[in-house]
Design brief:
344 residues, two-stranded parallel sheet, ten-stranded mixed sheet
Length: 344
């Protein structure tokens, strides 16, 4: 398969070019693009193409798929956690979350992660490889097919750092937004980053009004250096400066993710310091009671401490919510299911 092209890895324009290069009309790209986004698994399902064309496509290209290795549904809230197998045998995770405003899918962008955040299961074992645009898209296509309902929102917040796989993620975003495909609007897509400053600045110029979600998790460099190695390359002040530029350029509110870790980053002083750093920014803070990871020593803050932290941010005029804990009975946080499977 190595000499064949995964058609889902091509942008719409590249697919048009592909068909022109094999002596076909450009309109074939739209037909095939639609079939791919509808979740076909072989060319024979493309019934509006001739047998000869289907045979030609099978010779030159392939259609990537994912297999469901494990699937767990929460009895608490209906959250569904998927462990998915890729064509090469690697494993990734995706999660379906149900909200009043629709169905959200949380997807992975890499196999593993090299960012090394101390409280995260996804980064244990490091980065194996990047996902291709088609492999990122497959999570949406095949899970939407599995649940039999339309997915309305996407968060790139699963395994991996999306901006560490920049080009493939951008191509995926364009494909999933394309009107001939799944057609999910950019304003219904959130991308999470641990703070890769050059990539944030680059993303601000892409003319994609997605929500940027920044994993801040600390009010100062001293704490952030301990729990997030990336901070040694891009300090909090540099990250916040990039966020200001992103917000000003896109007119989109930044979301700051803040994992509440008992005794590490959850004090009253921490809340006040965080408030002073971000109060001039168009932003929202999402406080996250962290899930316990077996290999990590951290534990989540108490509900009392989380609510106190929240009240201090709100007194300083900062919009703040506490993330609803979803899928607590099925290891729904990033990397836990994959980690448990690999240990077996």
């Amino acid at each position: 398969m190595s000499d064949k092209i995964n058609l889902k890895d091509l942008s719409y324009e590249e697919l048009e070019e592909f068909f022109v290069n094999i002596g076909q009309q450009k309109y074939r790209a739209k037909q095939v693009f639609q079939w791919l986004h509808n979740g076909v698994t072989n060319f024979d399902e493309m019934t509006n193409l001739s047998k000869d064309l289907r045979a030609m496509l099978a010779e030159r290209s392939f259609i990537s798929t994912v297999s469901i290795v494990d699937k767990r549904t929460s009895r608490l809230d209906g959250t569904i956690k998927y462990l998915l197998g890729l064509n090469d045998g690697n494993l990734i995770e995706s999660v379906i979350m149900r909200y009043k405003h629709g169905i959200t899918i949380c997807i992975s962008t890499q196999v593993g992660c090299r960012m090394g955040c101390n409280f995260c299961a996804s980064t244990i074992g490091g980065l194996v490889r990047h996902l291709t645009p088609g492999e990122i898209l497959d999570q949406v296509i095949f899970i939407q097919k599995d649940i039999g309902e339309r997915i309305s929102n996407i968060v790139l917040m699963g395994i991996g750092e999306p901006l560490d796989n920049y080009d493939n993620v951008i191509k995926f975003l364009k494909n999933v937004n394309h009107p001939a495909g799944i057609n999910i609007g950019y304003r219904h897509i959130s991308l999470s980053t641990c703070g890769l400053v050059p990539a944030i600045l680059k993303l601000s110029k892409e003319n994609m009004p997605i929500t940027l979600s920044v994993s801040l998790h600390a009010p100062n460099d001293e704490i952030r250096n301990k729990i997030m190695p990336v901070n040694r390359s891009y300090s909090i002040d540099k990250v916040l400066d990039a966020c200001r530029i992103y917000a000003e350029t896109t007119k989109r509110r930044i979301t700051f993710e803040y994992a509440m870790i008992s005794g590490i980053n959850d004090s009253v002083d921490n809340a006040r310091e965080l408030s002073s750093k971000i109060k001039d920014l168009l932003c929202h803070v999402n406080l996250i009671p962290i899930n316990k990871v077996e290999e990590k020593e951290y534990s989540k803050s108490s509900s009392k401490q989380i609510n106190l932290f929240k009240s201090i941010l709100e007194k300083n005029g900062i919009s703040t919510t506490v993330r609803r804990e979803l899928g607590g009975d099925i290891n729904a946080s990033c990397g836990q299911l994959r980690r448990g499977h690999s240990k077996k």
